[in-house]
Amino acid sequence: MDKVGIIGGTGYTGSELSRLLCTHPEVELAALTSRQNAGKKVSDSQTFLKGYVDLAFTEKIGDTKDLDLVFVATPHGVAMDEVPQLIESGIKVIDLSGDYRLHDTAAYAKWYGHEHTDGENLQNAVYGLPELFRNKIKGAGLVANPGCYATSIILACAPLIKAGVVDNDIIADAKSGTSGAGMVPSPRLHHPFCGESVIPYSVGTHRHTPEVENAVEMFSNVGVKVTMIPHLLPIVRGILSSCYMDLKKDMSDEEVAAIFEKQYGGEHFIHYVKEPSIRAVVGSNHAHVSSNVLNGKVAAFGVLDNLVKGASGQAIQCMNLMLGLNETTGLDTPGLGV
Amino acid sequence: MDKVGIIGGTGYTGSELSRLLCTHPEVELAALTSRQNAGKKVSDSQTFLKGYVDLAFTEKIGDTKDLDLVFVATPHGVAMDEVPQLIESGIKVIDLSGDYRLHDTAAYAKWYGHEHTDGENLQNAVYGLPELFRNKIKGAGLVANPGCYATSIILACAPLIKAGVVDNDIIADAKSGTSGAGMVPSPRLHHPFCGESVIPYSVGTHRHTPEVENAVEMFSNVGVKVTMIPHLLPIVRGILSSCYMDLKKDMSDEEVAAIFEKQYGGEHFIHYVKEPSIRAVVGSNHAHVSSNVLNGKVAAFGVLDNLVKGASGQAIQCMNLMLGLNETTGLDTPGLGV
Amino acid sequence: MDKVGIIGGTGYTGSELSRLLCTHPEVELAALTSRQNAGKKVSDSQTFLKGYVDLAFTEKIGDTKDLDLVFVATPHGVAMDEVPQLIESGIKVIDLSGDYRLHDTAAYAKWYGHEHTDGENLQNAVYGLPELFRNKIKGAGLVANPGCYATSIILACAPLIKAGVVDNDIIADAKSGTSGAGMVPSPRLHHPFCGESVIPYSVGTHRHTPEVENAVEMFSNVGVKVTMIPHLLPIVRGILSSCYMDLKKDMSDEEVAAIFEKQYGGEHFIHYVKEPSIRAVVGSNHAHVSSNVLNGKVAAFGVLDNLVKGASGQAIQCMNLMLGLNETTGLDTPGLGV
Amino acid sequence: MDKVGIIGGTGYTGSELSRLLCTHPEVELAALTSRQNAGKKVSDSQTFLKGYVDLAFTEKIGDTKDLDLVFVATPHGVAMDEVPQLIESGIKVIDLSGDYRLHDTAAYAKWYGHEHTDGENLQNAVYGLPELFRNKIKGAGLVANPGCYATSIILACAPLIKAGVVDNDIIADAKSGTSGAGMVPSPRLHHPFCGESVIPYSVGTHRHTPEVENAVEMFSNVGVKVTMIPHLLPIVRGILSSCYMDLKKDMSDEEVAAIFEKQYGGEHFIHYVKEPSIRAVVGSNHAHVSSNVLNGKVAAFGVLDNLVKGASGQAIQCMNLMLGLNETTGLDTPGLGV
Questions:
Q1: Which residues of B touch C194 (CB under 8 A)?
Q2: Confidence check on the interface: ipTM exceeds 0.90, yes or no
């Protein structure tokens, strides 16, 4: 049985990895690191894991031997300090931060505001969206796990761009639950501020913008421009991205639907539906895609649980591919529904 | 002191009219009708009005004599049965339903799904958005009070269309609290369904679409096409509409801001701000407008309380104008802030 | 593999049974009934089950042969029409409504407001709270699955009553998410009404009151009086019941904790914790119990997901016992945590 | 016109004071202090006050001359550094922190965890709950404005204790919106943590406990013991406290109601109602009280907006009394209702 570890086991994506891995039948969760909690039982701070994770946090991932794969669930800027040594040791790596999602150091510096110190691995990292890049992921040593917003937008837009039926100018009005922002308290995430509101933020500057552009281009061979505005919703889990694209010529709802059905008809986790629903997918690795033709445009929706298909679930899906396991292992449960 | 009445005093917009009128210093709230509750004290069902409204519901508005102005706060399709007689009696009317917002009976039939039976008044009705049509409202006998979504979108788009700096193709991604849907329970408004989700609905069919198109055209003399998708938010009060328009030529954030400042700089209730906030306006007749230039587009936001500036507050603002009162009377309080 | 069916497959508890049973490795979900949707695919209305449940609804449970066990997930008053025939046919039954939870027809008539027509099975039904009545459930032909509020209160109080350390006068201030009220829209569950409030209801009349009294007495041989006030919370899933009991003599927090640890230390799904958390258990069959000594009283908390440990998860736990399976099969996943 | 100032103008209670004072017809809001924002316009940070408050923050309250009354809206522990000098200068003071609510320095040290340095004023401070202590407030130089939880509990319990119909052992299960915790982000107030949960906290240690005991005793001359558990709700504004007391002898609902009606029948802001509602009072200085007799107990509810009747509105009510104004001036609007 493959042994896996998590660097950054206390954050939301680290916890969600633990939640999903602890019942995964074919890998062993063997290590979680936390500088602050090193030596303490994981289930003392993450009480929902009591009975499921019997480990204590370690300080460094190197404290655990014979790991086959490591998830890096740290803030961006930290991952790039950890990854080179892991890769060198022959350990497969899935990075859930933004550090390896862009193609080159210049783009990274522009969007993240500081230099990238690991340009070599940056070039080789595979973008971990299995429905679009499955084969590359299977052979990858380093996977950059997609951002939550990015996944929802890419799923809703990439098939239409590839089919050549829409212009390459995408407006993505994205709406996310608060858990996407992580566990560190801040004024924007303070309940009295955000709990009964919807708040646009990072207008024109959100780092998932270039990520969507890159991924869509890689998949479709068409360069695209993305205008993305994230909005914070007063819910904990869930993203719905409403994407608007101009049709090149008149199409019916059915013709557009056919493109999505062709792309996703064989997928286990992606469902083309008439009424996209956050509650239908929340808690699971499933995603909804939907579309409507109106006024010569397509409005396409991408819906998912930001912590599962938007982060840790997708990372495990990648892990399954990288380790030669069945892609759905450990992830094959429906959303909560209600 | 002018005497006013409300037809449909038990719904949300009727209640909100009562809430605002009961402390209005220059009109007397003299009548509220309700078929079901006729004869019962208003404050027995609307307990928050105890100590403020001492009336009992009457069955018909005609039961009360000498009214100067009547608000019609019924569902659409009902208002057109009430309005002709009121107008004939020389009573000024403000209709909060959708019955008098479109210009002609054909458009009404298309969007509302049934015939309009009062074409004459339909033609004469004035669209009650004071910041754009103040002078017409002053002299009006019948005002069609704008829809909540429509107000938020028009405020964010009309100045740019009029200034001729953007294309006439508007994408309006609108997000509303649940009180906008009224007080009748339904599956979509059932808390377990909508309480932890965001739900797009009426895609391409929402009746505020032609209303926005008409109002913007009247104001700017430019025909526009609106692609509007409403989304239901898990909050009670508040709308934020994110509107996307292509710039005809490069402009800076400051240049776009200048257009809004010119339009709204002298307005009491409209504020051009950097960070639009539902909480800043909720409970009040104030609205926020904001804009960002990105990717050759303008993203403009319109924010308001759907029951106040999006309905009953705006209706009272119109009433003030129609009765020759100061426009802000009875409405001049800040939003809750938190 | 045992075959199971669900009468009332479209309601929240029926859907939740489907969600959990569709991945249960040792039973086959073979039938779901729905009068309204008979003949239609289950996953057309319950879209989150797409890929997991491939059945169509049938009109009657009798349409499916060779069922070993049937869950009755109808409103109370309906179950008693279905149960006698099932029992007679030798099919094991778990009723999730309130129809078989009280001991006698007189109590039923008093609390439910109509007669009970199946007094015989009522007498024989076993109350399905495995942690307290495991052995009886194993041999039962008819299990009355506990109410959601009742489970949370019983778990928090029964051990202390049995240990004889508190008076038999329990105050249960119970707080529930809205999904506990079922899927039928109503004024109280209308989002604008309940979405930003907390609402006490059924004060002194809630039907889980006698259920708690009966269950605690059965378990402890001590008659108790329960003063229960349910409060509706603006969340979808989750119950926290705060229970207050007078200590008979001074005890420390540790001594009280020891009683709970003794009772639940060996349980897989019940966790005695310092900081009870809805988010730690939501989506799972786990429950938290916690306690504090203050002012000569114990404040004890019971926390669970009302649709899982408070309804369908607990029903499956009972099913596992009745069918001779491992009690945790199909239920052994942690809560969402966040 | 009297001139008033606010020390601590940026916090939630300071902002709420500004919101209410800016439309108060008989006082002038002349000063707001903020160390961090000194020199900046108030409406730059509190954008909802744009058009209503034209002041800039000052560093010290002494920077403004001729103030008649000062509100101290700082955290506890800070107020006691400000109050002595104000009192000495002959300025009336209303302290919204907890610094002057308890009677003696020993109790303060026990509950607040640090010494009180202004014992003299502590002894003379008047507890500012107008419905119970109106006459004392009229003549006070220093008013300790009650806590939000405390107000809701006292209103629900004090009349019954005074009437001698219940035992002096009060259980207060209190539920509050998040704005009661103030504007500083913290893990408990982080939306992903609290946004879909209800969280008991400060069990047995909440500082409003002795405050309730003192106030009830002052009012009724009966010593009481309060067992209070606060619970954090996922709403922004609003408190509902459910209080449980044993009846000394059998009473009907009507007899208990009569006691409340007698106490509050003449009050403008307190309403004895059958169905207490947060939404009916939110945004206003009104409060609901309700009661039910069950099992030989009274369950009494106190409901209010924690920032208005639970803080800043009540402070202005006290101010009106202290300045010889009509008690309701500037506060006389109904709650939002929806």
A1: 191
A2: yes
3-state SS class at B143: strand
Subunit contact D280:B47, Cβ cutoff 8 A: yes
**Per-residue DSSP letter, A45:** H
Provide the shortest C-alpha distance from residue D139 to chain A (in Å). 36
Q: With 0-12 CB in 10 A as exposed, 13-18 as middle and 19+ as buried, what is D258?
A: middle
Spatial distance between the Cα atoms of D1 and A63, rounded to a whole number of angstroms: 72
Task: Compute the distance between CA of residue D197 and CA of residue A67 in angstroms, rounded to an integer.
Answer: 37
Please say whether the beta carbons of C22 and C46 come within 8 A: no
Q: Which residues of chain C make contact with D204, given a CB cutoff of 8 A?
A: 292, 294-295, 299
Q: Nearest CA to D198 among C235, C193, A195?
A: C235
Enumerate the β-bridge partners of residue A31.
Answer: A5
User: B187 vs C192: CB contact, 8 Å cut-off?
Assistant: no
Q: Which residue of A has its CA nearest to B244?
A: A171
Written as six digits, the tokens of C326 are 């491992």
* Chain B interface, Cβ < 8 Å to D: 12, 15-16, 19, 22-23, 46-52, 179, 196, 236-237, 268, 271, 273, 275, 277, 279-281, 283-284, 286, 307, 332-338
- Options A148, A157, A194, A243, the catalytic residue: A148
Task: Summarize pLDDT for C266-290 with one digit per residue, the tens.
Answer: 999 999 999 999 999 999 999 999 9
Radius of gyration of chain B (CA): 19
Nearest CA in chain C to A236: C338
- B22: tokens are 């009961």
DSSP string, B162-223: HHT-B-SEEEEEEEE-GGGG-SS--GGGBHHHHTT--EE-STTT-THHHHHHHHHHHHHS--
Confidence of residue D103 (pLDDT cuts 50, 70, 90): confident
For chain A, count helices (H), then strands (E).
Answer: 12, 13
Cα separation, B70 vs B14, whole angstroms: 11
User: Is D243 annotated as catalytic?
Assistant: no
Beta-sheet pairing, B239-246 with B297-304: antiparallel
Between the alpha carbon of residue A146 and those of residues A208, A239, B255, C40, D45, the distances in Å are: 9, 14, 36, 37, 36
Q: Does pLDDT of A103 surpass 90?
A: no
- The rounded distance, in Å, linking the Cα atoms of A286 and A308 is 8
Cα separation values, C336 from B191, B314, C288, D327, Å: 20, 44, 14, 50
Among chain D residues, the shortest Cα distance to C235 is held by D196
Cα Rg, chain A, nearest whole Å: 19
pTM of the entire predicted model: 0.98
pLDDT in tens, C226-262: 999 999 999 999 999 999 999 999 999 999 999 999 9
Cα-trace Rg, chain D: 19
C-chain residue closest to A283, CA distance: C336
Tell me the residue ranges of DSSP E strands in C101-236: 126-127, 142-144, 169-176, 199-200, 225-232
CB D95 within 8 A of CB D143: yes
B41 forms bridges with which residues in the sheet? B56
B250 token code pair:
């490069």
Q: Are B230 and B202 contacting, i.e. CB atoms less than 8 angstroms apart? A: yes
C36-69: pLDDT as tens digits: 999 999 999 999 999 999 999 999 999 999 999 9
CA distance B111 to B94: 21
- Look up residue C267 and give its two tokens: 């349980």
Residue B222: per-residue pLDDT:
96
- Neighboring chain D residues of A195 at a CB cutoff of 8 Å: 178, 191, 195, 234-236
* Token pair of B294 as six digits: 């990105």
Interface of C with B (CB under 8 A): 12, 177-179, 181, 183, 185-187, 189-192, 194-196, 234-236
Coil, helix or strand for C93? strand
State the greatest distance between any 2 C-alpha atoms of chain A, in Å, as a whole number. Answer: 62
